[in-house]
Amino acid sequence: MPDLTPEREVASREAIARRPARKSRGLKAIGLLGFACLGLMLVLGGTAIAAGASDRDATVWLALGAIIAGLFAIGLLIGSRVLLRRRAGRDGERAHQDPIQPETTAEEAERYEERYHGFPVDHTGKHERARDERSADRHHDGKA
Predict the structure, then answer these.
(1) How far apart are the C-alpha atoms of 24 and 85, rounded to whole Å?
(2) Which of 14, 59, 71, 90 has a beta carbon 3.0–4.6 Å from 52's, enabling a disulfide?
(3) Phi and psi at residue 127, in whole multiples of 5°?
């Protein structure tokens, strides 16, 4: 196993801490089932259109199946989304919506500023410094 530098070790611990709890896996599986029903709806809808073009008797049943699959898909997707949000609100966490670009909290933004821009987070004058920099920028832009 490679020897982790302290920064990488902290980053890996933070990534593990941000991982969704096992409780949410079932709710995410319900959402995935909703996407499967959505695909089934598209397949049944396309088959119903093809059957209707060739005057088949199964057209009505295929269309009805597509409508039912669509209703199940919408119900499962909305239900899993609502339950994920509700569970996250109860547990004090945020719902993990996008694993590629997760939502950023204020604490994470401050840690980012401190780590990558060298700006101390607990600095008492950070708001005044930012206000002074903005006014200097405005003043400089006005003279240019």
Answers:
(1) 10
(2) 59
(3) -70, -40
Structure tokens at 16: 């593990």
Q: How many Å apart are CA 46 and CA 62, to the nearest integer?
A: 9
Q: How many CB atoms lie within 10 A of CB 51?
A: 17
| Model confidence, pTM | 0.51
Using 70 as the pLDDT threshold, list the residues of the chain that sit under it.
Answer: 1-23, 88-104, 119-130, 141-144
Q: How many helices (H) and strands (E) does the chain have?
A: 5, 0
Helix or strand run (H / E) with residue 51 = helix 23-53
Q: Are 80 and 27 in contact (CB under 8 A)?
A: yes
Q: What is the pLDDT of residue 65?
A: 96
Which residue matches tokens 């401050």? 110
